[in-house]
Amino acid sequence: VASQVKDHAPFGGVVPELASRRHLQNLTPVVRAALTQAGVSLNDLTGIAVTQGPGLIGALLVGLSLAKALAWARDIPIVGVSHLEGHLAALGLCEAAPEYPFVALLVSGGHTSIFLVQGPGQQKELGQTVDDAAGEAFDKVAKLYGLGYPGGVVIDRLAQDGDPGAIKLPRPRLHDGTLDFSFSGLKTAVVYFRRDHEGEPYRMEDLCASFQEAVVEVLVKKTLAAAQEQGVEHLALAGGVAANQRLRQAMSWAAKENGMRLTLPPFELCTDN
Ligand code: KG4
Ligand code: ZN
Hints:
Number of strands: 7
Order of helices and strands: HHEHEHEEEHHHHEHEH
Helix content: 40-55%
Shape: globular
Bound molecules: 5'-O-[(R)-(carboxyoxy)(hydroxy)phosphoryl]adenosine, zinc ion
């Protein structure tokens, strides 16, 4: 895994052009390292799988170009894999891997979706965000206050010393009867809160905890509703935001209260690989 966090940190978010250029530099060394770790050479490969999307188009093009070149040079088949399906498949590497069928909440900087997963490669999207992804909302709120990047990590840490009920923020689309999300209005609510309380003392820890609670409550309640609608008893989390302490805790309680099982993957199986 090659992380670009340090490259994008000065900008408070992923800069697409920079991401593609770093991909170009990192990709060959990462493929070499993977082959070395696996103890195989290019000659041993019988096929190549490559992420074909959804994602940032420039970064995807770099990956596809390398994969196509290798497959052509070696005369082996190439298979395009959905980025989201990759996240769901990574759950199978967990110690307590979910059993089919399960409902997965995939929350990252680019995606916020609920899936019904019925088998390998058999998933149905039940709901998704209509605007910002949950991770994007974390990053934008952190950027607004100059807290650092990735915003989710900083907000998670600060929120641990905060009061989640201190500041009243909306729970967007919580009762709209769908499994879709919206986080752009929540971010705007924080922008207005900041403007309307300028110069007044309030604790950043409380702001972070209140914002995080609003995101987590909607994520947990909709995921639970999805499982109940589908009659499924196993839940799973995936994506970078699945590292969030409060989300893990709230999802665990919700699963327990409703007699459901929950797969909470370790961070390395949540994030992009
Ligand atoms: O899956 P990921 O590593 O990359 C993609 O976006 O594809 O997810 C990154 C996102 C960022 O928005 C980051 O702020 C968020 O995951 N994130 C977190 C936490 N750790 C990472 N959000 C909330 N709490 C965390 N602990
Ligand atoms: Zn991802």
